[in-house]
Amino acid sequence: MTSAGEQPDRTVLLTDTGERPWRSANLYGGDEYSAAYDELTNALGDFLDRLAEARPETELIASMTESLSELARGLDPLAVAERDRVFGRRTDLVSRGQTMSPTVDLAEVDDRSASGTVYFGPYFLGGNGAVHGGAIPLVFDEILGRLANASGRPPQRTAYLNTDFRSITPVNRTLTIRAWLVSEDGRKRVLRATIHDQDILCAEAEGLFIALRPGQP
Ligand SMILES: CCCCC/C=C\C/C=C\C/C=C\C/C=C\CCCC(=O)SCCNC(=O)CCNC(=O)[C@H](O)C(C)(C)COP(=O)(O)OP(=O)(O)OC[C@H]1O[C@@H](n2cnc3c(N)ncnc32)[C@H](O)[C@@H]1OP(=O)(O)O
């Protein structure tokens, strides 16, 4: 931990280039509303990253708390039923219009596989430059869930998701993520995924997804 007055280690806190690569070209072809919502979730993600990196003074903490509380009060009367919400439901956006998981930017997708990049910003830091061990299964569930549900298949739920952490997954680096279908047996679908930092295997996972029966929540 950095003590007061000591400069943080920027090599841990910043990317090689200082860029936040998922903060652009986030549209798969959505409309103006999607574009605006994408800007909103990008701004929120940026705020969380910068908050995670910062050591603000007490005065700034108080003023940020007031600003955030005011924004929350503005949203209070706008709550709608789950099916009518926007957050996490915009499949026309690379980010899916959410900040819970890092954005998985898929460059190649077909019926049985998907691959692309993922970038864990400072918000997802566990410690010593490594991503939090809970954020990695989150990203695996995201990519495996999307693949399990792709190509007009009935909605699936994750029955198990086993993750092996093979070496640390670094924050602030563009990582490669791959997922593929291993087997299908009736309602059961087994998929696997990996995250690599160049040629280093960071983590891998296997998930069992079960197609829901009509009416099953
Ligand atoms: C799904 C709706 C989502 C709607 C979202 C809408 C918009 C969002 C837009 C886009 C989404 C984009 C991306 C999505 C990103 C992520 C997706 C995440 C998905 C999840 O993150 S979702 C949350 C976590 N998930 C749960 O909250 C599940 C809780 N759970 C259950 O809901 C039941 O448990 C269920 C349904 C899984 C099964 O229940 P069930 O009664 O239908 O079936 P049953 O138990 O009979 O199992 C059938 C056969 O699977 C075998 N089997 C079952 N479980 C096993 C296990 N663990 N290990 C080994 N084998 C297992 C049995 O042994 C049997 O095998 P066999 O047929 O050979 O006998």
UniProtKB/TrEMBL annotation:
State whether keyword Amino-acid biosynthesis applies: no
InterPro entries recorded = HotDog_dom_sf, THEM4/THEM5_acyl-CoA_thioest, Thioestr_dom
Q: What is this protein called?
A: Acyl-coenzyme A thioesterase THEM4
Q: Which compartment or compartments is the protein found in?
A: Cell projection, Ruffle membrane; Cytoplasm; Membrane
Against Gene3D superfamilies, the record matches this protein to:
Hotdog Thioesterase
Q: Please give a single GO biological process term from the UniProt record.
A: fatty acid metabolic process
Q: What is any one of the record's Gene Ontology cellular component terms?
A: cytoplasm
Tell me where in this chain the Thioesterase domain is found: 128-200
Record keywords: Apoptosis, Cell membrane, Cell projection, Cytoplasm, Fatty acid metabolism, Hydrolase, Lipid metabolism, Membrane, Transit peptide
This enzyme's EC code(s) = 3.1.2.2
Topology in the lipid bilayer is annotated as: Peripheral membrane protein
Q: Which of the seven top EC classes does this enzyme belong to? A: hydrolase
